[in-house]
Every structure is written in C-alpha cells, then in structure tokens.
Design goal:
Methane Monooxygenase Hydroxylase, Chain G, domain 1; GINS_A; GINS_Psf1; 7 helices; two-stranded antiparallel sheet; elongated; mainly alpha; 2 domains; 58% helix; three-stranded antiparallel beta sheet; nucleus; Ribosomal Protein L9, domain 1
Length: 206
C-alpha cells in the first residue's frame, strides 16, 4: 500500500481524533478529510479488483503469498477507513440529537456554522418529526422536552415561590398556588412551572 493510500487511513483516523478533541461540542465539518478517505477507498477497491481480475479466479488460490498479502492489506485499509467514516458521521448525528433535546428546534449560529448542509437538513427533518409527534398526543399535544426522564413517583410535592393563582391539573383538579403554599401534584403537570420558577420541589427548600 503506497503513501497515497496510507494518507486515506490517516485522514480517517484524524476524523475520529477531531471528535475526541471536542467531546462536548460538534467540531467543524471536515469535508476535505472525508473526501480524501472516500477517494482512497475507491482507489484501493479498484486496485484489488484489477489484481484479482488479472490473476483469474483459478490462479488466485495459488497466487504468490505476497500478492495475497497485498490484497488482504488493501481490504483491511478499506474496512478501517469505512468504519472511521461511519463513526464520524453517526457520532455527529448523535450529538445533534442531544442538542435537539437540549435546545429545541433552533440551533445557534455558532453551531450551524460547524455543520454541513446535509446535517442541517437532517436536523430540520428530525425536529419536524418530533414536533409532529408531540402535537399528535392528546387534545393539546405534549412537550416531550419537559419529560426527558421518567418521574420517580406519580406525584411530586412542590412549594410555590410566588403567587400564581388557580391551576388545573391534567386530572381536572384545581388548586390555588399562593406563595409558600405546598401541594402534591402530578409530576407531569408541574415540570413547566418548575422551569419557569413558579414552583420548586418542596425538599429543595428544606
């Protein structure tokens, strides 16, 4: 395997290294390295194809050990490059999924500039799919971002940190939320008010 094809493996390894160097963000999309890796795969495949075709099927089994080793080495390089490229694409996609649940359907300009057009298209399609599913649940829909982890219990004891007024639960029960009043309410109903700072879990104020 010559130096040019070795560079394809190096490019694939560098793609993974970029992800490791930025574990908490999505680094800039490196289309140049992906193209180098992709071109190398095509060239290695063509070289193996030509080698096998020139030998002929009957001769391949009796081919010189060095020729068999060259073919196997090229194939190993192809497999390695493909694994790295797939990992690069899938890991970036997984990080985008995480951002969707953290930030909602709007990406900051800083994040957008690090994405390819294909990644932006995928993110928008993924966001639309989630939004469509949320609006299909019940009469008023369901915001899944408020329930990213299952509640420890059906009800939660909460304390109002300011006057809010009458509040109706999903069960139809009505309560008046006054400052410092304590209530046991369905966990699914209080998440939004907790995020808005109207309620806090009662134990957090002990």
């Amino acid at each position: 395997m010559n130096k040019k094809h070795t560079s394809g493996v190096d490019a694939a390894h560098e793609l993974i290294a970029e992800l490791h160097r930025s574990p908490n963000m999505i680094p800039p999309y490196n289309g140049m390295l992906l193209k180098t890796a992709s071109d190398s795969v095509c060239e290695l495949y063509d070289m193996n194809y030509e080698t096998i075709r020139s030998l002929g099927e009957s001769q391949l089994t009796d081919a010189d050990q060095s020729v068999r080793a060259i073919v196997a080495t090229r194939q190993h390089a192809i497999n390695r490059i493909l694994r790295c490229c797939r990992t690069y694409v899938e890991e970036r996609k997984n990080r985008l999924k995480t951002l969707r649940w953290q930030l909602g359907g709007i990406l900051t300009p800083e994040i957008k500039q690090n994405l390819s057009q294909e990644e932006l298209n995928w993110f928008n399609a993924y966001s639309k799919m989630i939004s469509k599913y949320q609006t299909s649940i019940g009469e008023n829909g369901l915001n899944l971002m408020l329930h990213t982890s299952p509640p420890k219990s059906i009800n939660m004891t909460v304390r109002a940190v300011k006057d809010y007024g009458e509040f109706e639960t999903s069960e139809g029960k009505r309560v008046v939320l006054k400052k410092n009043s304590i209530h046991s309410l369905p966990s699914v109903d209080v998440q939004l008010l907790i995020k808005r700072g109207t309620l806090v879990p009662a134990e957090s104020m002990i």
